C-alpha cells in the first residue's frame, strides 16, 4: 500500500499513537483485539506488550507494590490469553513483574522470589526462572557469563522502599517511595523496550563471527532477525545464500524479493529453493540459519513451520544449525504440553477457497509454527 | 497479504520513535458504516419468529458480532444499525454488551446508533429513511447484519475513492468473492444465482440478473448496451459478500426509486438498467483471496459454520474468542470452552462444545456445534448438527444434520432426520421418530406468532410443538407467470434440495420451440442469429436468442389478444385505449416493426374471419371486412400508423403479405373463403386509403405470396381485385398523361 493512502484499519502504530489520548482500559482492549484478529504479529508483539505494561504502570492507580503486581499480572494474563500461541507475551510480562519486584525489594530478603512464582501462577505457562537454554549456548565473549538478565536492567541506583503488602499502612513517606518506584519501573520498562528493539541489531553483530567467506548459508523462511543477520554479514563477507520458502507461490514470483535485492546489492549471491528440494542442496550447504519465535526451557525452539525439515536435513549431513533468538524470546515453559497447541493459520495458504471440490473434500491444517527439538540445534545466537 | 503485513510492520516501526506530540496526523473524516440487521425475509423461520435473525448463534456467537467485529477491524468509527423485527432485542443485546455498548469506553466505535423505522417493510425503506436523515457525510460501508468476512477494506476503499475522484458518477463498489469453476458449497447453498455482467478492464458492473432453478425460462437477456463495451464477462460464480462501499449518491438513488426493495434484485438491477437515465457507475471488486459471505439463509449458515471450523475465516474462528467471556481452546480437532466435559468413552470429532456442555458416555458426535450448557446423554449420535444453548439430547437419540434451538428437548431414543429444524423450547418425547418428509420444522409458534397447538402425532405424547407451516402469501399468488415458483422455497431449508420441486428440464442450449403456428419471420430470426453469434465471439456460452424469441412470442400473443378484444367490444367504440396498450406492450418487449405488423394483421384477420362465422351473424366477406376495419373509431388510423407504418410500396406489400399469412393460419377457414375475405379486406383497405395500389400490386408480384398451395389459393381469389386495380392504374396513368398533356 502506498503511504499516501489513508488507511482506516487499526494498526499497532495507530494504537501506540493514541495511547496518551485514550483511557487505559480502552487501549488494553484495543491491543487485545489487535492480537485476537492477528493484526499485530511477530516481533511487534513484544514491543506492543511492553508499551502496554508501561501504560499500566504509569496510568493506573496503585498504592502498593502488591497492587501494582496484581494489575500488571491481570493485564498480562488478558493479553497472553488473547494470543495463547505467542510465548513472548508471557515472557515480557514476567520480565516486567520481575523488574517491579527487583525494584521494590532491593532491601528485602531474597526469598520473595518464591512469592513471585505463586503470583505468576495464573499465567498460562508455569513460570520458573529461565534455565540456561540449549546445549551449547553461544554468548558474546565480551559479556560476563554470570550476569543474569534481571541484573542487566538494574543499572540505575537502587531505591529503598519499605516493606510492601496490604498489611503495611501507607504513610506519606511510603507514597513518595511509591512515586519513586513508579518512575524507576517506567525507566526499567523503557530499557526492556530498548533491549527488544535492539535485539536484532545486536544479534546481527555476531554475523561475521558465524558466517565465513565462501560459505553457503541456507535460510529457511527468513524472519526479520535472520534477514538483518544476513545483510550485516554481507557487508563484510562474500558468501552465498540459499533462500528456501515453503509457501504456495504464484509462478514467476520471487520469494523474499526485497531481501534478495538487498543481498545482491552487497555482492552476495542468492539462490531460491523450493522446500522440497532442500535435501538435494544440503551437501553444498555449510550452515543453516533459523529464526526462533520462542526458545523453551529445554532448548527446543518454536519456529516457522517447515524449519524442522531443514534442521533434520542438516543433521543428516552434519551441518551446523544456528538459531537466532533475542533473549526476550527465552521462555521458562516446558514445551511438552504445548507442542500440540501450535497456532493454526488460514487454510487458504494452501488451498484456494475458490477450489470448491478441495474445500469440500479436504481438511486443511496450516500449522504456522512448529517445535524444533533441542538436539537439532547446534548454536544459539542471542543478543547478550 | 504479506505485503500488507509488511507495511503494518513498517508503520509500527515508525511509531516507535515518534514523539508524544503525535497530533500531526491529519484528521480524516471518520469512516461510517450502516448495518442492515433485518432483511425482511423469512429464510430463518421458524427461528426468527422469536429472535431477530442477527442474534441467532453462528458457531455459538450471535451473527451480528462477526459483522461488528469486521467493521471494527477495518477501523470504522460510526455505526448506524437498522433493525426491523425484534428491534428491542437487538438494541438490548448491543447495549448490554460490554464491547459494543455506546456507553462503554471499550467500544471501538466512536458512536453506535440505532435507527428505528416504524413502517419499514423492506431494506429500501431503511435506505430511503437514511437519505432523509442526512447522517452520512461521505463514503460509507453498507453491510448486512449477517456478514462474515475477513477481507481487508483499506485497499478497496482507496480504489473506490480513486474511481470516485476520476469520475463523480462512480457511486458504489460491490465486494464479491470469486468461487471458481468447480462446484462450490457456498455457491450451491444460495438457491438464487446472481449473474453479474462485468467489464473486466475496469471492474465496472454492467448488468445484474438473478437466476434460480425454478424459473420458467433459463435465459438471461443481455441489454444491448452491454455490447457497446469492448469486453465483458458474465460471472455466475461470485459470492456476494454483502459489503458495499457507497457514496451518499446511492441513497439519493434509492429515494428516487420508491418501489425498490432489495439492494440487489431491485436496486442494482434497476440502476444498471437505467444507466442512461441516471448515469451512475457501479463497480465490482472481485476478490481472489480472503473470505466473505452472508449467513443469509440456513444453507449459508451451514456452509459458513463449516468454513469457520476449517479456518477459512481466520481470525473469525472459535479459538480466537472474539466474544467477551469466551474461552475456547483448540485441541486435536475439538474446540472446548471451559467446563465442557466429554465422557471418556465418547468420541467427539471436529466439533465445538460450549461452556459446561456435557457429553455422557458412549456418544458419537462429529462435525457439530454444541452450545453452552447443553446436555448430551448416553449413546447419542449427532452428525453435522447445530445444537444451540441449553438444549437437551437424551440417551440414545440420533440427530442428523439438523438445527436444535435453545431449550429444546430431544427425548430418549428419538430420531431427528436430516434437515430438521427444531425451534425454541420444543419437546420431542421419548421414542419419537420424526418423518423425513415433509422436512420437520417444529415450533411452539405458528407463522403469525400465536402459540401453536401441540401435534401429539408428530412430537409424541409428552411433546410440545407443531409443524411450522409457511404463511400463505397472498401477495405472491397474484404473480401470473405460472411455473415461476418463488425461489425462497429453495432457501428455507437447511439442506439444498430440488427434490419434490417442479423443475422444467429444458436444456439451456437448445432454442425454444414454438408450438404456435406462426413462426418468427425470417428477418427477425436472422437478427437473433447475429446476436447469438456475437455472443459466441465474446466467448459467452448461454444462448440468448431463444429467450428473446420467447419474449417476442409472448408479445405477439398478448398483442393479438388485446387487439381482438378491443375489436370485439360492443360497448366501446373507442380504439385509442387498445392502441395505447399495444404501444406499451411493444415498448416493454422491444418488438420490431415486423412483429407489430404481424400482430396487427393477425388481429384484424381474426376479427374479420370471426364475423363471417354463423354465430356472429355470418356476414358476407365484404361486409365482414368492412365491419372489422371500420366499426371502431381510430382502427383504420391505427392500421395505417402501426400496422403498415409508412407510405412506402414495400411496406404496403409487407402488410398485405402479413394479412394473407394471417388468414392462411386461421383454423376453420377454408382457403376459398379466406381468399375472398382477403380480397375484401384489401379492397376495403384500398378504399380507406390505407393501402396504395402499388403496394397491393407489389404483393401480387411477390414470390413469397405464393410459397405454398394454401397461400397461392388464397392469393388467386384476389385476382379480380388486382386486375381491377391494374385497370384503375392504367386509367389513372391515362388521366395523369392527359393532365400532363393538358398542362403542356
Automatic annotation (TrEMBL), chain A:
Polar residues compositional bias, start-end: 118-129
Main location: cytoplasm
Keywords noted in UniProt: Cytoplasm, Initiation factor, Protein biosynthesis
Keyword Cytoplasm: yes
Family of the protein in this entry: Belongs to the eIF-2B alpha/beta/delta subunits family.
InterPro entries: eIF2B_beta_subunit, IF-2B-related, IF_2B-like_C, NagB/RpiA_transferase-like
Annotated spans, Disordered: 104-136
Entry GO MF terms: guanyl-nucleotide exchange factor activity; translation initiation factor activity
GO cellular component: cytosol; eukaryotic translation initiation factor 2B complex
Localization, UniProt: Cytoplasm, Cytosol
The protein, known as: Translation initiation factor eIF2B subunit beta
Protein origin, superkingdom: Eukaryota
Subunit structure, interactors included: Component of the translation initiation factor 2B (eIF2B) complex which is a heterodecamer of two sets of five different subunits: alpha, beta, gamma, delta and epsilon. Subunits alpha, beta and delta comprise a regulatory subcomplex and subunits epsilon and gamma comprise a catalytic subcomplex. Within the complex, the hexameric regulatory complex resides at the center, with the two heterodimeric catalytic subcomplexes bound on opposite sides.
Lineage, highest ranks first: Eukaryota, Fungi, Dikarya, Ascomycota, Pezizomycotina
TrEMBL record, chain B:
One family name in Pfam for this protein: W2
Keywords: Cytoplasm, Initiation factor, Protein biosynthesis, Transferase
Low complexity composition-biased segments: 1-13
GO terms for cellular component: cytosol; eukaryotic translation initiation factor 2B complex
SMART domains named among the record's database cross-references: eIF5C (SM00515)
Biased composition (Acidic residues): 469-485, 726-744
Protein biosynthesis in keyword set: yes
Compartment(s) of residence: Cytoplasm, Cytosol
Annotated ranges, domain W2: 550-735
Quaternary context: Component of the translation initiation factor 2B (eIF2B) complex which is a heterodecamer of two sets of five different subunits: alpha, beta, gamma, delta and epsilon. Subunits alpha, beta and delta comprise a regulatory subcomplex and subunits epsilon and gamma comprise a catalytic subcomplex. Within the complex, the hexameric regulatory complex resides at the center, with the two heterodimeric catalytic subcomplexes bound on opposite sides.
Protein name as annotated: Mannose-1-phosphate guanyltransferase
Amino acid at each position: 500500500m502506498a503511504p499516501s493512502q489513508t488507511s482506516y484499519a487499526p494498526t499497532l502504530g495507530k494504537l501506540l499513537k493514541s495511547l496518551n489520548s485514550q483511557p487505559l482500559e480502552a487501549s488494553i482492549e484495543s491491543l487485545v483485539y489487535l492480537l485476537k484478529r492477528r493484526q499485530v504479529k511477530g516481533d511487534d508483539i513484544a514491543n506492543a506488550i511492553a508499551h502496554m505494561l508501561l501504560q499500566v504502570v504509569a496510568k493506573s492507580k496503585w498504592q502498593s507494590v502488591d497492587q501494582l503486581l496484581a494489575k500488571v499480572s491481570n493485564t498480562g494474563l488478558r493479553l497472553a490469553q488473547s494470543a495463547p500461541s505467542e510465548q513472548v507475551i508471557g515472557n515480557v510480562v514476567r520480565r516486567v513483574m520481575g523488574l517491579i519486584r527487583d525494584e521494590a525489594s532491593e532491601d528485602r530478603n531474597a526469598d520473595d522470589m518464591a512469592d513471585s512464582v505463586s503470583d505468576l501462577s495464573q499465567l498460562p505457562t508455569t513460570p520458573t526462572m529461565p534455565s540456561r537454554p540449549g546445549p551449547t549456548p553461544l554468548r558474546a565473549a565480551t559479556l560476563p557469563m554470570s550476569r543474569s538478565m534481571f541484573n542487566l536492567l538494574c543499572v540505575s541506583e537502587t531505591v529503598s522502599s519499605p516493606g510492601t503488602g496490604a498489611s503495611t499502612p501507607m504513610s506519606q513517606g511510603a507514597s513518595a517511595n511509591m512515586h519513586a518506584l513508579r518512575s524507576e519501573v517506567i525507566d526499567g520498562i523503557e530499557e526492556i523496550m530498548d533491549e527488544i528493539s535492539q535485539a536484532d541489531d545486536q544479534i546481527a553483530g555476531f554475523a561475521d563471527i558465524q558466517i565465513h567467506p565462501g560459505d553457503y548459508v541456507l535460510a529457511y523462511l527468513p524472519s526479520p532477525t535472520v534477514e538483518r543477520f544476513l545483510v550485516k554479514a554481507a557487508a563484510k563477507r562474500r558468501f552465498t545464500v540459499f533462500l528456501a520458502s515453503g509457501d504456495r507461490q504464484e509462478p514467476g514470483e520471487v520469494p523474499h524479493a526485497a531481501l534478495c535485492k538487498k543481498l545482491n546489492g552487497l555482492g552476495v549471491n542468492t539462490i531460491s529453493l523450493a522446500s522440497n528440494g532442500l535435501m538435494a542442496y544440503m551437501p553444498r550447504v555449510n550452515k543453516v540459519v533459523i529464526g526462533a519465535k520462542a526458545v523453551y526451557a529445554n532448548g527446543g525452539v518454536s519456529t516457522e513451520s517447515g524449519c524442522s525439515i531443514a534442521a533434520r536435513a542438516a543433521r543428516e549431513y552434519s551441518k551446523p544449525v544456528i538459531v537466532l533468538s533475542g533473549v526476550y524470546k527465552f521462555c521458562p515453559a516446558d514445551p511438552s504440553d504445548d507442542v500440540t497447541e501450535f497456532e493454526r493459520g488460514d487454510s487458504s495458504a494452501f488451498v484456494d477457497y475458490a477450489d470448491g471440490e478441495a474445500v469440500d473434500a479436504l481438511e486443511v491444517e496450516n500449522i504456522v509454527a512448529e517445535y524444533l527439538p533441542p538436539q537439532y540445534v547446534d548454536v544459539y545466537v542471542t543478543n547478550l | 497479504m504479506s505485503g500488507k503485513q509488511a507495511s503494518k510492520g513498517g508503520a509500527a516501526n515508525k511509531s516507535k520513535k515518534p514523539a508524544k506530540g503525535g497530533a500531526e496526523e491529519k484528521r480524516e473524516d471518520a469512516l461510517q458504516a450502516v448495518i442492515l440487521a433485518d432483511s425482511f425475509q423469512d429464510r430463518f423461520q421458524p427461528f426468527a419468529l422469536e429472535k431477530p435473525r442477527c442474534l441467532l448463534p453462528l458457531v455459538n456467537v450471535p451473527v451480528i458480532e462477526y459483522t461488528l467485529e469486521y467493521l471494527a477491524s477495518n477501523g470504522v468509527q460510526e455505526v448506524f444499525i437498522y433493525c426491523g423485527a425484534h428491534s428491542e432485542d437487538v438494541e438490548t443485546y448491543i447495549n448490554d454488551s460490554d464491547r459494543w455498548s455506546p456507553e462503554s469506553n471499550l467500544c471501538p466505535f466512536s458512536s453506535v446508533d440505532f435507527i428505528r423505522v416504524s413502517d419499514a417493510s423492506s431494506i429500501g425503506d431503511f435506505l430511503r429513511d437514511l437519505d432523509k436523515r442526512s447522517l452520512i457525510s461521505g463514503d460509507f460501508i453498507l453491510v448486512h447484519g449477517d456478514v462474515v468476512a475477513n477481507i481487508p477494506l483499506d485497499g478497496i476503499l482507496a480504489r473506490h475513492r480513486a474511481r470516485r475522484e476520476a469520475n463523480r458518477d462512480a457511486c458504489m463498489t460491490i465486494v464479491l468473492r470469486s468461487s471458481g469453476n468447480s462446484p462450490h458449497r457456498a455457491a450451491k447453498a444460495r438457491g438464487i444465482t446472481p449473474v453479474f455482467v462485468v467489464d473486466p478492464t475496469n471492474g465496472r458492473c454492467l448488468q445484474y440478473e438473478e437466476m434460480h432453478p425454478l424459473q420458467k425460462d433459463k435465459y438471461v437477456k443481455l441489454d444491448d448496451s452491454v455490447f457497446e463495451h469492448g469486453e465483458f464477462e458474465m460471472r455466475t460464480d461470485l459470492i456476494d459478500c454483502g459489503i458495499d462501499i457507497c457514496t451518499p449518491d446511492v441513497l439519493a438513488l434509492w429515494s428516487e426509486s420508491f418501489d425498490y426493495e432489495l439492494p440487489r434484485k431491485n436496486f442494482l438491477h434497476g440502476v444498471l438498467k437505467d444507466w442512461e437515465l441516471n448515469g451512475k457507475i457501479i463497480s465490482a471488486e472481485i476478490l481472489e483471496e480472503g473470505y466473505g459471505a452472508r449467513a443469509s439463509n440456513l444453507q449459508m449458515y451451514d456452509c459458513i459454520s463449516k468454513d469457520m471450523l476449517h479456518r477459512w475465516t481466520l481470525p473469525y474462528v472459535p479459538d480466537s474468542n472474539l466474544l467477551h467471556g469466551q474461552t475456547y481452546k483448540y485441541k486435536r480437532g475439538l474446540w472446548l470452552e471451559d467446563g465442557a466435559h466429554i465422557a471418556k468413552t465418547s468420541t467427539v470429532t471436529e466439533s465445538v462444545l460450549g461452556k459446561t456442555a456435557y457429553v455422557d458416555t458412549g456418544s458419537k458426535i462429529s462435525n457439530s456445534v454444541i452450545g453452552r450448557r447443553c446436555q448430551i446423554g448416553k449413546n447419542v449420535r449427532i452428525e453435522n448438527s447445530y445444537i444451540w444453548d441449553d438444549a437437551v439430547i437424551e440417551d440414545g437419540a440420533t440427530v442428523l444434520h439438523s438445527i436444535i434451538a435453545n431449550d429444546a428437548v430431544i427425548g430418549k431414543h428419538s430420531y431427528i432426520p436430516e434437515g430438521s429444524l427444531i425451534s425454541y423450547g420444543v419437546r420431542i418425547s421419548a421414542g419419537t421418530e420424526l418423518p423425513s418428509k415433509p422436512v420437520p420444522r417444529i415450533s411452539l409458534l405458528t407463522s403469525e406468532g400465536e402459540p401453536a397447538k401441540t401435534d401429539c402425532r408428530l412430537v409424541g405424547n409428552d411433546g410440545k410443538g407443531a409443524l411450522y407451516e409457511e404463511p400463505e402469501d397472498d401477495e405472491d399468488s397474484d404473480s401470473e407467470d405460472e411455473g415461476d415458483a418463488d425461489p425462497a422455497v429453495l432457501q428455507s431449508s437447511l439442506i439444498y434440495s430440488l427434490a419434490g420441486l417442479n423443475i422444467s428440464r429444458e436444456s439451456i442450449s437448445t432454442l425454444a420451440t414454438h408450438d404456435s403456428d406462426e413462426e418468427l419471420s425470417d428477418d427477425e430470426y436472422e437478427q437473433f442469429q447475429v446476436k447469438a453469434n456475437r455472443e459466441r465471439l465474446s466467448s459467452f456460452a448461454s444462448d440468448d436468442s431463444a429467450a428473446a424469441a420467447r419474449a417476442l412470442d409472448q408479445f405477439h400473443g398478448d398483442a393479438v389478444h388485446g387487439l381482438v378484444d378491443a375489436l370485439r367490444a360492443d360497448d366501446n367504440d373507442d380504439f385509442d385505449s387498445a392502441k395505447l396498450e399495444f404501444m406499451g406492450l411493444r415498448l416493454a418487449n422491444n418488438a420490431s416493426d415486423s412483429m407489430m405488423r404481424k400482430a396487427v394483421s393477425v388481429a384484424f384477420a381474426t376479427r374479420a374471419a370471426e364475423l363471417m362465422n354463423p354465430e356472429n351473424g355470418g356476414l358476407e366477406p365484404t361486409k365482414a371486412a368492412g365491419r372489422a376495419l371500420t366499426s371502431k373509431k381510430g382502427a383504420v388510423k391505427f392500421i395505417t400508423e402501426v400496422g403498415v407504418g409508412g407510405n412506402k410500396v414495400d411496406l404496403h406489400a409487407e402488410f398485405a403479405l402479413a394479412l394473407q399469412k394471417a388468414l392462411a393460419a386461421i383454423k376453420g377457414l377454408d382457403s376459398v373463403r379466406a381468399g375472398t375475405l382477403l380480397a375484401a379486406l384489401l379492397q376495403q383497405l384500398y378504399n380507406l386509403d390505407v393501402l396504395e395500389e402499388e403496394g397491393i400490386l407489389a404483393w401480387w408480384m411477390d414470390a413469397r405470396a405464393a410459397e405454398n398451395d394454401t397461400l397461392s389459393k388464397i392469393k388467386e381469389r384476389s385476382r379480380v381485385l388486382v386486375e381491377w386495380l391494374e385497370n384503375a392504374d392504367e386509367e389513372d396513368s391515362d388521366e395523369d398523361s392527359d393532365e400532363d398533356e393538358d398542362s403542356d
